[in-house]
Every structure is written in C-alpha cells, then in structure tokens.
C-alpha cells in the first residue's frame, strides 16, 4: 500500500540535507519505497518569485515560469530522498536530466497542489538511476508534469548496465555569451532553497571533489528557458540533459536553433566549447501530446 507523506508547509532544505548526509552511510536498500510526498494549498510568494525571475533572466510578471514550479517541487523531492525508507544517500547524487511539460501558464495568485513519487529504478554505468515524477495541479487541473532523473553513484541494482553511448556533437553556431559571477550559486540558492555545498563556496565544492564552485543545473535550464520563452506557445515540453558542470566564475555560450516543432538548445563553455547542457523544446497539444 502506498504510504503518503503530507507536508503542511514548505520545509527548509538545510536541515533536511544535513539529516540526509548524517544518515547516508546506513542506507543499504535495493528497492524504491512505495511512497508519495504531497503538499496541498501551496501559495506563491510573489516577492520570492520576482527575485527568482531576476536571478534567472525572466521578466518580472504575474505569470510563473515552469521552472519556478520545479522550485516548489524540489523540497518534496528532497523530503522523499531523506525519508528513512529511501535506499540511497542524498549527498553525492547527480541530477542527470529534467523534463517539464507545461499544460498552461500559471498565475502567481493561483493555489497549487503538488505530488512527488519515485519510480523506474534502473542501472547506470556509474551507479543507479531513478525518476522523480511530479504533478502540479490547480484544483483538479494538471498544469505541469515533471520528470527529474537522478544518479546515485556507485550503487548496484539488478539489470543490464547500459553502455555509455557515443552521442553526436550538438550543433554550434552564433549565440549569446553570458558572464557568470562567482556568487551565482549563492544567489540561485537564495531563490531556490537548494543549498547544496557544491554551489555555495569554492572550499566546500573542493571538499566534495570539484575544482571550484559549480552553478545549479536548474539555473542553467531556467536561464535557457528565459531566453526563448517569449517565442513559445502556452503548452510545451522542455527537456534538458546536464552534461558537464559549469564552473563559476566563468563564461558560457547559449545557442538556440529553431526546428519544425520547437527549439534545440545548447549551453557551452565560451572558451573551450565544452558542452554543459543540451535540450529541446517541443510544442504540446491541448491533450498534452507532442505536436
């Protein structure tokens, strides 16, 4: 029987991350828990939304970017990963990809119901991966679906390990260069609640195996969406795969190529050309199907 964890308020993520880190070494399960995390009656803080818009490059309006709905989903994801029945350590997990389907624009005054569950545990050549599936509703209407795939490094699960695929080089061409400041990780953490130490300071990032601070993958996705959102229909699916960490401070180049159904998006290092993220936006029909 599915167990439900109902959050009465949005949790502060710092204590949850600390608890998850402290209990990570005792997590030894092999199966995903049959549990869902829900939060009803979520109201958007318009000041917090405006601050997020400014950090990510969206115009400040009463409409909610679909990636900001991820910000509301994220505490439920973390709560599920920190649950005692979740088999893998939260610290050290890697966000591999994120897919958001926006069914319609959400107004900042609307009241939301959010649900998150986890499914599809499978091998990865670097460990185990699973999908965190979120649904955001206004009343009975689904306004956004999301699938976030996370890697749990070094973990073993039954099944054939997929080989690392040789992927084609994403298209390059004229684009826009963004200069990323050293405090970008802290600024995005302040508007998203994601205070993972790898994003906060060079010393804590180095302690966790990175040469310096890295920017949040979801900031990259949000910034790419902000660059093309005014050319998108109300209903779309935006998928992004996170390839290489973006070290800050630094410069990245964003390239967007229009297709018959939407856009191809690429984020590269402005200096070396290293691919940091690749994505697609496709228009969705009224029933959520891809057109």
From TrEMBL:
Protein name: MaoC dehydratase-like protein
Coiled coil residues, start to end: none
Entries under SUPFAM superfamilies matching the protein: Thioesterase/thiol ester dehydrase-isomerase (SSF54637)
GO terms for biological process, alphabetical: fatty acid biosynthetic process
InterPro entries documented for this protein: Fatty_acid_synthase, HotDog_dom_sf, MaoC-like_dom
Family classification: Belongs to the enoyl-CoA hydratase/isomerase family.
One Gene Ontology term, aspect cellular component: fatty acid synthase complex
One Pfam family matching this protein: MaoC_dehydratas
GO molecular function, one term: fatty acid synthase activity
Annotated MaoC-like domain residues: 181-256
């Amino acid at each position: 029987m599915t167990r439900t964890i109902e959050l009465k308020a949005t949790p502060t993520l710092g204590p949850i991350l600390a608890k998850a880190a402290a209990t990570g070494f005792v997590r030894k399960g092999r199966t995903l828990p049959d549990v869902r995390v829900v939060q009803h009656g979520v109201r958007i803080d318009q000041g917090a939304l405006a601050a997020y818009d400014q950090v990510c490059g969206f115009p400040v309006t009463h409409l909610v970017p679909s990636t900001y709905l991820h910000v509301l989903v994220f505490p439920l994801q973390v709560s599920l990963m920190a649950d005692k029945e979740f088999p893998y350590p939260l610290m050290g997990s890697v966000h591999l990809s994120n897919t958001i389907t926006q069914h319609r624009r959400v107004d900042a005054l609307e009241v939301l119901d959010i649900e998150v569950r986890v499914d599809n545990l499978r091998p990865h050549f670097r460990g185990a991966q699973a999908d965190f599936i979120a649904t955001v509703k206004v009343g009975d209407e689904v306004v956004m679906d999301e699938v976030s795939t996370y890697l749990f490094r070094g973990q073993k699960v039954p099944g054939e390990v997929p080989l690392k695929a040789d992927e084609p080089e994403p298209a390059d061409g004229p684009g826009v260069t963004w200069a990323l400041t050293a405090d970008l990780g802290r600024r995005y953490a302040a508007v998203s609640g994601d205070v993972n130490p790898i994003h906060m300071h060079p010393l804590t990032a180095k302690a966790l195996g990175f040469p310096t601070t890295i920017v949040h993958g979801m900031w990259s996705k949000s910034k790419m969406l902000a660059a093309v959102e005014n050319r998108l229909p109300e209903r779309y699916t935006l998928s992004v795969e996170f390839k290489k960490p973006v070290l800050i401070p630094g410069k990245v180049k964003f390239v967007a190529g229009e297709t018959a159904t939407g856009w191809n998006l690429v984020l590269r290092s402005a200096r070396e050309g290293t691919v940091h993220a690749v994505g697609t936006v496709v228009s969705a029909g009224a029933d959520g199907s891809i057109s």
